[in-house]
Amino acid sequence: MPNLSSDLQPIINKRLNNLSASKIRAFDQKVSGIPNIIKLTIGEPDLATPEHVKEAAIRDINADDSHYAPQAGKPQLLKAISRYLDRSLNVHYDPDSEICVTVGATGALNDVFMTLLNPGDKIIVPTPVWALYFQLIKMTGATPIQVDTKKDGFILTPKHLRHVLNGRGKGAKAIILTDPSNPTGRVYPAETLKELAKIIKEYKIYSITDEIYAELVYGGAEHHSLSQYIPDHNILISGLSKAYAMTGWRLGYIAGPKQIMQSIRKINAFLVTSVTDNVQMAAVEALNNGQNDPKEAREIYEKRLKFMQTGLEKLGFEMATPHGAFYIFAKIPEKYGTDDEQFAFELAQKAKVGLTPGRYFGKGGEGYVRISYASSTAQLEESLKRISNFVNEL
């Protein structure tokens, strides 16, 4: 096996030296070797991709659809995305110029950050948040300005945003919001988004909304988007991974004003050429004929949320009420102070339940753990018993 020449080893993109591998994945791997462990660490739906969606992909393969797709996406899929956004948000995007199909929402984030951000730029990132944002932003040479939202129930308030834009975030080019939130499950009310939209417009910055969990909202809450209020400023990112249990299919998309989408489409073409043909046709089937699929998933997840939330609260765990995604962000027992890593590791070792330390999601996450209820009901019932025994022994 060859070793890299010692003369070449220092020759690398220096920005990579400032990046860290995913701590979420590292912790998941660390506890995976514990016998009989139940892992509630990763946001991976246990549900299967709907049959009609799988059959659409198989039909496309059998039809020998195996050539390069259009770089921004197949026309059928671009139209399906446009119709979906029209009916779900009442916002129209031209399929020919304002939408781009990507390799998952992660690919979409890369496209947008690479298009917008230059070295030295600032982008505001309310936290706790999915930590990959930080690394993708740093890869461009830009700086993520973390804004701790813990004191406001994990919702960025308009007052807080204005304060940041006048202070350490002064001159920021953009802000990114995840709604519904990973890791907190919080959903932004329409009135809050309207007020945030006014400030974003006033300060003449981009907004980027990661709406991958848009279909998974519960408890009477409703999903809204900044695209409904400032479509001229907002770049919307979403995909089919969560609502349609298609994480491994890697299908995401971006929608935004034509002028910026020209550049985003260009970047996407440079990075991936095009998205896999049969995956795109499966997505067409999901969006055109699978409108009930997310509803069925929602009903399952909502029952699991109620079960886990009720059980955890009886054990003394505190949380800002989650209304979306499939996560609970719970405050750890007082004995551990804010050492969520120690708590999570001891819970994994002694109770054989894997939860993700909250500090991995940025400022405001210390002292919390993220619990994914995207696992089977049987696993959740057993995990709650184990957590209960562990906490009662403290």
TrEMBL record:
GO terms for biological process: amino acid metabolic process. Its cofactor is pyridoxal 5'-phosphate. Belongs to the class-I pyridoxal-phosphate-dependent aminotransferase family. Keywords: Aminotransferase, Pyridoxal phosphate, Transferase. The lineage of its organism: Bacteria, Bacillati, Bacillota, Bacilli, Lactobacillales. This is Aminotransferase. GO terms for molecular function: pyridoxal phosphate binding; transaminase activity. Its EC number is 2.6.1.-. The keyword Transport does not apply. InterPro entries: Aminotransferase_I/II_large, AspAT/PAT-like, NHTrfase_class1_PyrdxlP-BS, PyrdxlP-dep_Trfase, PyrdxlP-dep_Trfase_major, PyrdxlP-dep_Trfase_small. It comes from the Bacteria. Residues 36-387 form the Aminotransferase class I/classII large domain. Pfam families: Aminotran_1_2. The keyword Repeat does not apply. It comes from Lactobacillus ultunensis DSM 16047.
